[in-house]
Design goal:
- With about 120 residues, the chain is an alpha/beta fold.
């Protein structure tokens, strides 16, 4: 088992739609970075929130694998509400239950604790 280092933290800010090749590249990259001992967090915003939908077979297994390896995945609450994936009370309708619904203050805390940030759109 890979030991994750708190001193080696990466946040991936992902805005690419599920249809984009960038979406799968970002998730596969996250998996490889975990192999190198990094603690990884992925923030899905804009069109990327669709990646977290429970009924999307393209990403379900890869998301589950990443989460089981200790990757934290958060979806932008505002973006998910705008697309109808969650309601205004932040109750998930279509979001994978293992994905956190987070706001900007949570993202700010992630960014503060991280020493590397990668934005993929």
């Amino acid at each position: 088992m890979i030991k994750l280092s708190l001193s080696r933290q990466l946040i991936i800010l992902l805005s690419a739609s599920p249809e984009s090749q960038n979406a799968s590249i970002a998730l596969k990259l996250a998996n490889k970075v975990v192999d190198k001992g990094y603690l990884v967090r992925i923030f899905l915003y804009s069109e990327a929130v669709g990646i977290s939908r429970v009924n999307d077979p393209r990403f379900k297994d890869l998301l589950e694998k990443l989460i089981s390896r200790g990757v934290e995945v958060g979806v932008c609450a505002q973006c998910a509400i705008a697309r109808g994936y969650i309601d205004s009370n932040l109750r998930a309708r279509e979001i994978n239950e293992k994905v956190a619904i987070i706001g900007f203050s949570d993202l700010a805390a992630w960014l503060k604790s991280s020493n590397k940030v990668l934005s993929i759109g």
